[in-house]
Amino acid sequence: MQADLSILKLITEASLLVQIIMAILVLMSVASWALIFIKYRQLRDVHKSTRAFEDRFWSGISLKKLYSELKNTRPHEGLDRVFYEGYQEFTRISQNTQAVNGVVPAAQRAMRIAESRELDRFDRNLSFLATVGSTSPYIGLFGTVWGIMNSFLAIGQMKQATLAVVAPGIAEALIATAFGLFAAIPAVIAYNKFSDSVDRIAVSFENFREEFVSLLDRHILTKKREG
Hints:
Blueprint: H1 7-12, H2 16-57, H3 63-71, H4 79-96, H5 103-123, H6 126-156, H7 163-226
Helix pairs in contact: 2-6, 2-7, 3-4, 4-5, 4-7, 5-7, 6-7
């Protein structure tokens, strides 16, 4: 008699503990895929908005006009927020003090805080993908070890063990490892991809901040000469 080795049959006839492990891995996989889609859309939109803002910033528009445009739009996100917070601090201190030496450093600090908060928002929940990628194979392996152990215990109770008898137990145990890899591989790929995207966004934010600070320094220098 040939054993039924269909995937569904092996899953339904697996031991309770192995079924629980497979259910956990399925839930982890579903959660990681949901996060993958959310992060993909978020980071894609950030890249688009960053390019759009840089094009607008370097189009020759005055900083005051650009700030006024952003002042009427909410919420401020990404590079828009870095610029808005920096220029807002620059304007506020310039209006409240005659000393110009501390104006640019204050604006720079405000931009760094805004940048840090934005990057923290982009990084949020990425650790979950790393956790799924690193733990899923081991969870699946635990189910495999447990299933194989039960299979060998059953073999020990038989007078004669053939391949047809042994194969279903071994196969159902190995499915747990397959479930673990199915959950882990996409999570690891997505985590590496998104981490690289966040790093590139951080570099673009930092470059913009330094360029913007240079513009503010030149503005202060011009103001000193006119004064």
